[in-house]
Amino acid sequence: MTKNIWHQRNKKLSTIALSLVLWHSAGAVTLEEATALQRTLITLDTHLDTPANLLVPGFNILERHSYGHDFTQVDVPRMKDGALDGGFWAIYTPQGELSKTGYEQSRDTALLRALAIRTMVSANPDIFEFATQASDAQEIKKQAKHIVYMSMENSYPLGTDISLLETFYKFGLRMAGPVHFKNNQFGDSSTDPSGSQWDGLSPLGEELVAEANRLGIVLDGSHAHDETVKDMIRLSKTPIILSHTGCKAIYDHPRNIDDALLKQLAASGGVIQMNAYSEYLEALPVDPARQSAVKGLMALYKQGSDHDVLLEKRREIEHEHPAVKASFDVYMQHFLHALKIVGPKHVGIGADWDGGGGVNEMMDVVNLPMITQRLLKEGYSKDDLVDIWGANALRVLQQAQDYAASVKK
């Protein structure tokens, strides 16, 4: 499909969507209508773990895959079906030892992941375009390409050399979170079984905040302990983001935040992006047989087993001991609660695709228009959807970049 034809089709869908939304303002909007409306917006997800798949044998981002076959959730055909323009593609490295060797190995892994993201874009210039400025999203959308910002989940690869953040900035990094599942050199995680080590950010973590501000990198408080998030809000010269987080008022899990902290985040100009990771949305039944099977799968992974062998074993586990997922309605309970507490100027979407996210009825990006449909049903406007689907995250990025520019002056 040529760009002109694509634009004509999109314009037609926009007209249909807007007229039908107005017509149905007092009633239900169909999924088709919601999808057509969503195509007129800049739609971003602030936490895509999809770069982890880019070097996996048999995975091609340009081809259609399915969750049932290879357990992936994002590719170009499905992004088009789900009206997802793009988002922040994550450099993720697991937490390792706080040692010189650990830092160096993680740094190298992170650089290779950053290179994989850049290669995805450069190899497909008609499909993707790399973004470094908040204003880039609008221009890329006009060209009918997919938007690629780069983020870092877990700043562990920086080691104790804060200057490495500038190296990643030059690669294109525009968002960074200090921690992941465990405490590290930068601060406390929300889920470290040993509890708090620093009572928030470490002294090195405070330096990280200052350097991110200087460069114009958005700080991400997802996975961070509440005290760490509070320190980030207090110290950062620009608003922070929670790129994939839920609400404790709906489910009291350490990965979620309570209403008081949510209000503090919004008061500082920050944004919460709603996570679709089922285990963080509600208490789910435990299946000992599945846990044992998954433990065996992880052992095979650590042994370096062939990818096809691991994939077949995963399919076997899902067939014999299927995972229990939260419902789409529970996901929307978190979403609507956040909107109720802080309003549509401070809420967005970060479903944790290809990183464990997904709920029943919404297991990949194809089903994203269900969110738009539900928000319209709840009475939210097109302007609200503009903010939720992308403008809020871009505003935070713009503020970070404006501050960095002012410092340079």
Describe the fold and architecture.
This protein has 409 residues and is an alpha/beta fold. Helices cover 46% and strands 10% of the residues. Helix 1 (3-23) packs across helix 2 and helix 11 runs antiparallel to helix 12.
Features:
46% helix, alpha/beta, single chain, disordered N terminus, 15 helices, 409 residues
Poorly predicted ranges: 1-6, 19-26
- H/E element order: HHEHHEHEHEHEHEHEHEHHHEHH
Largest sheet report: 6 strands, parallel
In DSSP terms (H or I, runs of 4 or more residues), the helix count works out at 15
Helix proportion of residues, in percent?
Answer: 40-55%
| Global structural class | alpha/beta
Strand content: 5-15%
Distance between the termini: 45 Å
Mean pLDDT rating:
93
Rg to the nearest angstrom? 20 Å
Rough shape?
Answer: globular
Query: Strand tally, please?
Result: 9
Helix-strand layout with pairing:
Blueprint: H1 3-23, H2 31-38, E1 44-48, H3 67-70, H4 76-81, E2 86-92, H5 100-122, E3 128-130, H6 136-142, E4 146-153, H7 164-171, E5 173-177, H8 203-215, E6 218-219, H9 226-235, E7 241-245, H10 259-267, E8 271-274, H11 288-302, H12 307-320, H13 328-342, E9 347-349, H14 369-377, H15 382-408
Parallel strand pairs: 1-2, 2-4, 3-4, 4-5, 5-6, 7-8, 8-9
